[in-house]
Specification:
Blueprint (H helix, E strand, L loop, with lengths): L2 E2 L10 E5 L12 E8 L2 E6 L3 E5 H7 L7 H4 L2 E4 L3 E11 L7 E5 L2 E4 L2 H9 L6 E10 L3 H7 L3 E5 L2 H5 L6 H7 L16
């Protein structure tokens, strides 16, 4: 049974974190991250607009999972962040149960177990999913400080943006949900 990730009253969980144009840190420049967990102990998220150099077919082959679905094999694995780049995360919709799933809200879940990848490969997995290697994390108060420093803007998570908007358009599209044109935004802030 998927477990809910605990959140506090000021939690940014299930929000999209959007890097402002002035954020020059190469790890986070022009990124959009879904905040999956945020509480007094810090925050964890998955970058949702950076493709890695790996295709899903290559990842499945590495873990000895086979699929005949050529379209699935050609999906890019995302570079989910600099922390634990060897660890896989599957962000998906649906209510199916997998071994290590956490409900994020808005019909989303995050799964870190192999069984969801096996289900995707066999065609019985979630209808929509993003596979990422690595995650982003912030220590206690760090994300709040970076937001105060105007390094990031936030917007509620949007499943259509996560699953249907092309990767290269997600940064602008996410900010567009607030009516912000990032290209026109002043470059006066940002350091992560």
């Amino acid at each position: 049974m998927p477990r809910d990730i605990p959140t506090g009253p000021n939690s940014l969980a299930n929000q999209l974190l959007i890097a402002v144009p002035a954020l020059e840190d190469p790890t986070f420049c022009r990124t959009v991250a879904l905040i999956c967990q945020h509480d007094q102990n810090g925050a964890m998220g998955i970058v949702v607009n950076r493709p890695s150099d790996m295709l899903l077919g290559e990842l499945l082959q590495q873990i000895q999972v086979t699929t005949g679905d050529e379209i699935l094999r050609m999906h890019h694995v995302l570079a989910g962040g600099p922390v634990h780049p060897e660890r896989g995360f599957v962000l998906h919709d649906g209510k199916q149960d997998w071994d290590s799933s956490f409900t994020l809200g808005n019909g989303l879940a995050l799964t870190t177990s192999r069984d969801v990848l096996e289900s995707l490969a066999s065609g019985t997995g979630p209808e929509r999913a993003l596979v990422a290697l690595g995650c982003a994390s912030w220590g206690p108060g760090q994300l709040e400080q970076e937001i105060t420093e105007n390094s990031w803007i936030t917007v509620p998570a949007d499943n259509e943006l996560l699953f249907t908007t092309p990767l290269e358009s997600r940064w602008q599209a996410a900010a567009g949900r607030l009516g912000v044109d990032l290209i026109q935004m002043a470059g006066y802030s940002g350091r992560a």
